[in-house]
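Q: My hope is that you can spare some time for a protein that puzzles me. Underneath my words sits a plain record pairing an amino acid chain with its backbone structure tokens. Those tokens are not coordinates but codes from a learned vocabulary of shapes. Thank you; the sequence and its tokens follow:
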Amino acid sequence: MALTTKLEAVNTMISVIGESPVNTITGQTSLPITAIQAISTLDETSRAVQSEGWHCNTEYEYELTPDSVTSKITLPNNTLKFDLDPLLYTDTDPVQRGLKLYDRKNHTEVWTKSVKGTITFELEFEDLPEQIRHYVTVKAARIFANRFIGNREIEGFTMREEIEAKARAIDSDSENADRSIFDNYSILRIIDR
């Protein structure tokens, strides 16, 4: 059994509004407007879902190094969010501004040393685990149908399916992350007393 492709996701979305499937999603100038809008909604929804930060697209202790010429830290192009541990970096207050890391405490984009933090990346649809692909597809289909035709019956049906898909995605993500109560920094501080 193969993983859901972006083409299959788009066809699922346009089928919700009763439109015929498309054979390709490349060459957007020759595609029907419904397919173009479905692709856009799928990409938007994928970005929003991935912004939540899942095990598959989040990395911890990710090191960023200042540029040797400008001393600015540029984040990777697909960065959705980046955060430093406030207990390790008490002399800074970093915030992402575009693709630059800005220090609000010192009012500068200039960094004197490398930093390590938690980064969340936006992955391509095909790089996501199947459960998250399915969740993104169902959520995007609901949003797309609501924007395109605004039918409450369709929205209600897809909302139930979306809730189930999200639960499966969370369950799968938790299994892959092998989380325990000891993964929480606050719990570790209590235990370490």
Remarks:
- The first strand starts at residue 58 and ends at 64.
- Helices lie at 6-16, 33-51, 130-148, 152-177, 185-191.
- Residues 152-177 form the longest helix (26 residues).
- The CA atoms of residues 76 and 99 lie 7 Å apart.
